[in-house]
Fold:
Amino acid sequence: MNCEICDGILHLDGEITVKTVHGNAYRLHGSAYRRFVQLSGGDIKAVDLSAVSRADSACLSLLFSVLRRNGSRPELRHMPPAVADLAELYEVREWITP
Structure:
C-alpha cells in the first residue's frame, strides 16, 4: 500500500490488505500504516481509490479511520467492488456512501 496527498485528495494505491497494511501478525503497525496515519489526519476533501489493485477488510477499516479523523465527510472515489461488497455484508454501506 502506498499513499500520498495532492490538493487535499488522499490517493491510495497498490494492495490494501491486512498483510500489506500491517505486515505480519506480530507487528502492531507497519510503516505503510504509519504513513497513512500521518497523511490522513489533515483536511482531506476526498479519498481516491482508483489505483487500488486489491483490497480487503483492512481497506474498509482505513476508510472508516479517514471519516472519523476528518470533521467534514470526505468524498470516497472509485471504491473497489470488494470493499463495497464487504460494506454491504457488514451492513455499514450507508456509513461510507452519501
